[in-house]
Each structure stands twice: as C-alpha cells, then as structure tokens.
Write a structure and sequence with these properties.
Blueprint lengths: L17 H7 L5 H6 L3 H12 L3 H13 L4
Helix pairs in contact: 3-4
Amino acid sequence: MSQIFDGWDDHIFAGRHMREVQAKWNRLSMSDLSQIKTKSELIDRVQEQYGLAREVAAQDVEIWWSDRSF
C-alpha cells in the first residue's frame, strides 16, 4: 500500500461529521453517508462518486480528515 495509508487506523464516524462530509463531497447521498463508518469506506465512496484514482481520493480524504477531531 502507498505511504498515505501508513499509520491509519479506521475510526467510526461520528454523526456530527456527516454534514461536513456532505458539504465537502456533495455527490455523496444520504444513503452513502449512512453506510460510511471508516475513512477507508469514505475513500471508496469518494473514489466511486467522483471517478478518481484511489490515490487521489485517499489524498483528498486524508487532507480533509487531518483537520478533524474524531
């Protein structure tokens, strides 16, 4: 796996962050959001909905994630 995944541990998403996720990635539906529980799942959905390479989606999520306190 690439360096971007090193040291990641998947935390359960807190409901309070779902609005922030949808504000950042507005193509994610409420159904998508209700199924996302980890960063890995968020990366998968962002990759899928935006047609991005996994590395690009992971980097986008990592940048967003680093500004949050879960």
